[in-house]
Amino acid sequence: MNNNLVVKMEKIEHINYIKVPIAEVYKVLTTQEGLAAVWTEELVVKPEVGFVNEFGFGDEDVTRMKVVELSPDKRIVWECVESDPEWIGTGISFDLVEKDGVVAVVLRHFGWRELTEFYQWCNYNWAMFLLSLKRAL
Question: pTM for this one?
Answer without folding.
Answer: 0.92
